Amino acid sequence: MDRMHLLAVNWFRSTNKFQYARICLDYVYILLNLNPLLLCLWSKIRTCSMVGNSGRNISWDQANEFMNLEVKGMKPGDPRRIDKVITMLNGLRAADSHLRQAVGEERSDPGKYTPVKAHHVQAIVDALKLKLGASNAEIFGPISVTTNPFGTATRPWDRVKNPAGLPAPTAASLFDEATTWAISQLERAPFPGYS
């Protein structure tokens, strides 16, 4: 998870997801500057488990999205009822394992649990086969490109490498631009003592 924030910052910058890019930068800044004891605590509580299976955690923002969907599903009708619905949902979540055990419907072994659905995997495989081919010869053979699938826009991998769109970038100019961007973001950060 820690490496994903380092990796994803340019993905978000190149797709104009500026708030997510900033979140990545803040996350890395916090990670690199935390006291080792706090970093250990951070590693334990930075994610949550929706069903109590250790090692199957999700990010807190995803947990909040799930909660939002559950609340919408309950159709509270009046904004004043949302807090009551959330309290009820949290109570049900806390009682989930006891209720499942009582009715003989326990969750699968955590080692066998996966959020990946077979039909989702098959849909992706089918789409890739359709686009790329199904055999090694089709996938790795010579291709004739008659049109640019990205139109006249910058190829996505070039944009990720150069999110600021520098003309004729060198490795040094890309590094300088990324450093300048990161410092400009951190200078506006709400971190006490940063200068």
Could you characterize what this model shows?
The protein is an all-alpha fold and 195 residues long. Among the domains are: 1-45, no CATH class; 54-112, no CATH class; 119-143, no CATH class. The protein has 9 helices and 2 strands; from the N terminus they run H-H-H-E-E-H-H-H-H-H-H. It has a two-stranded antiparallel ribbon. It is extended. The mean pLDDT is 80.
Short note summarizing the structure:
This protein has helices at residues 2-14, 18-33, 36-45, 60-74, 82-102, 118-132, 136-140, 156-161, 171-187, and strands at 47-48, 58-59. It is mainly alpha-helical. The mean pLDDT is 80.
Content-based structural category: mainly alpha
Overall strand count:
2
Dominant shape? extended
Number of helices: 9
Low-confidence stretches: none
Tell me the span between the first and last alpha carbons: 27 Å
In quaternary terms, these chains amount to: single chain
Major β-sheet, in short?
2 strands, antiparallel
Strand percentage: under 5%
Strand order of the largest sheet: 1-2
